[in-house]
Amino acid sequence: MASRDEREARAHFEERYGISGNSAAALLEERVIGAVWGANGYTTRAQADELYDHLALTPDSRLLDVGTGRGWPALYLAQRSGCTVVGTDLPLAALNKARARAEREGLADRSAMVVASGATLPFPPRTFDAIVHTDVLC
Amino acid sequence: MAFLTIHLPPGLSSADRARARASGPRAVGSRGEHDSMLRNAGFDVLVERDLTNAFLDTARAWLRESDAVADELIGLEPAGGFDERQEERRTMIAAIEHGLLRRSLFVAAKRGR
């Protein structure tokens, strides 16, 4: 059963992630973080590239992105490396957008989006080779 | 594992901690230091780097660039949503400027792997 914090976070972000973008929102994101992935946080493209370097991802890697939102930077890292990626988050609206983006980017067959709390991830030990998260566990 | 996290600096007074928590993202509030939490969880910390200056730059850019296209963004959100978000950004920027919020990169590896 979800905690009160989780329920509140889900409701808060469900509304925000449910907002559709337009060309101005895309331009805004490009100007602020240097990429357009439906992100609304503080991870710039340069920082995503640094995460990529540190994680040493390869096409054989299995990456977990906890709190992926609309798929940033999970899908970008999968696109760059060829790895398989699983993104988790609480708001279904965000994960639906991430899944749609994965399909558009040709990443559907090596990506999955799972509704899950970072506190109780539904994966057995050693499922992943690498884990990333950005401003989720503060 | 590599991650970016917004966190409170050590040594804040209880009043400043409360202000920082109210100013940051919803989840800000961890009481422990990330490096000690990682070590306690069986990870070795390979990289720890302060990115607060870049965090402040990015927060300011969201505020400034959103204002620049406000007319086109306001209609995307429920009534008052855009103004609310911009106010949250101003509050967070003030907290960063006052040293109440930091952002850091951590890279860690499971011990023994």
What this model shows, in words?
- The complex is a heterodimer of chains A (138) and B (113).
- With 138 residues, chain A is of the alpha/beta class.
- Chain A has one domain: Vaccinia Virus protein VP39 (Rossmann fold, 3-Layer(aba) Sandwich), CATH 3.40.50.150.
- Chain A is 41% helix and 15% strand.
- Chain A contains five helices and four strands.
- Chain A has helices spanning 4-17, 23-33, 45-55, 74-81, 92-104; strands at residues 62-66, 84-89, 111-115, 130-134.
- Chain A has a four-stranded parallel β-sheet with strand order 3-2-1-4, with helices on one face.
- The longest helix of chain A is centred in the first third of the chain and has 14 residues, at 4-17.
- The radius of gyration of chain A is 14 Å and the shape is globular.
- With 113 residues, chain B is α+β, with helices and mostly antiparallel strands.
- Chain B has a single domain, classed as Rossmann fold, CATH 3.40.50.150.
- In chain B, 49% of the residues lie in helices and 20% in strands.
- Chain B contains five helices and three strands, in the order βααβαααβ.
- Chain B has helices at residues 14-23, 34-40, 52-68, 70-73, 81-97, and strands at 2-7, 43-50, 102-110.
- In chain B, helix 3 (52-68) packs antiparallel against helix 5.
- Chain B is elongated.
- Chains A and B meet through helix 1, helix 2, helix 3 and strand 4 of A and strand 1, helix 3 and strand 3 of B.
